[in-house]
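Severity: low
Component: inverse-folding endpoint
Summary: output formatting inconsistent between runs
Steps to reproduce: submit the following structure tokens with default settings.
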């Protein structure tokens, strides 16, 4: 069984050997889509040596400059962290995260697992691009795995969750369709634009405003229909007048039947 919609993203990996080892770990579990964000040394013979038979995964790896580029087209992005206490949002353990990811993959959605640098992990700004967070429950006194080992454990958990789903023969449980990464990015751009227009946000003195708002919405795990409402609110603010909507329009946006 392959995991065609699972994307593994490695951010600024410094040791090419770890990239190769991650490719091997992925292929063992049936995953093949590897995206490298600004790797320090790549391609490199050390990467190929550690890939040991997973050269195809390595050769097909895409190299991009930034994390948002790596996440384009994803329905969700799980940031993997060795230090869950540093994260303000809910952090799932690896098994719980896999149980959320498996039905999405089955439904044909692309899900990303995002891994940080060997020395410093993911920055706060990068975390803000992730929709959820995952931690492999390790010994608290020594919680940081080698990045390729973390890739191994998470891809394994996703594989086991997918196998369980297949063997149960049941249709995957319905999941809340979270707003896709690209749609959230458009929303943040729209939100920033409106905040500037109404004089609340000065891009010359940003005071981490957008990063804080990103964290807030990441914590809320915004669903598709909720995002449509938020975009509607922003457009109404820009229109400078209260938008009057008919019940039929509201039903279309929220997916709910209005009270009669
Ligand atoms: N010293 C860094 C550790 C980086 S380890 C720090 O304290 O953040 C490199 C990457 O492997 C991490 O960014 C994370 O994506 C992944 N990783 C390591 N241990 C992990 C764990 N216990 N749970 C989830 N991801 C982990």
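Observed output (run 2 of 3):
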């Amino acid at each position: 069984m392959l995991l065609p919609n699972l994307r593994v993203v490695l951010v600024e990996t410094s040791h090419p050997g770890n990239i190769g080892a991650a490719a091997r770990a992925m292929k063992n579990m049936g995953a093949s889509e590897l995206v490298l964000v600004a790797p320090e040394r790549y391609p490199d013979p050390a990467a190929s040596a550690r890939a040991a038979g997973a050269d195809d995964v390595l050769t097909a790896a895409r190299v991009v400059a930034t994390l948002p580029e790596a996440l384009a087209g994803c329905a969700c992005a799980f940031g993997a962290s060795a230090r869950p206490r540093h994260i303000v949002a809910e952090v799932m353990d690896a098994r719980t995260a896999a149980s959320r990811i498996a039905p999405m993959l089955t439904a044909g959605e692309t899900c990303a697992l995002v891994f940080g640098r060997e020395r410093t992990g993911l920055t706060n700004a990068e975390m803000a691009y992730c929709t959820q967070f995952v931690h492999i429950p390790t010994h608290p006194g020594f919680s940081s795995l080698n990045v390729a080992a973390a890739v191994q454990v998470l891809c394994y958990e996703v594989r086991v969750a997918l196998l369980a789903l297949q063997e149960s023969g049941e249709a995957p449980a319905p999941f809340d369709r979270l707003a896709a990464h690209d749609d959230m990015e458009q929303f943040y751009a729209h939100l920033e634009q409106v905040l500037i227009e109404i004089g609340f946000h000065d891009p010359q003195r940003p005071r981490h405003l957008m990063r804080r708002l990103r964290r807030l919405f990441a914590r809320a795990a915004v669903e598709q229909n909720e995002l449509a409402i938020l975009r509607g609110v922003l457009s109404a603010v820009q229109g400078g007048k209260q938008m009057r909507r008919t019940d039929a329009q509201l039903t279309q946006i929220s997916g709910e039947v209005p009270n009669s």
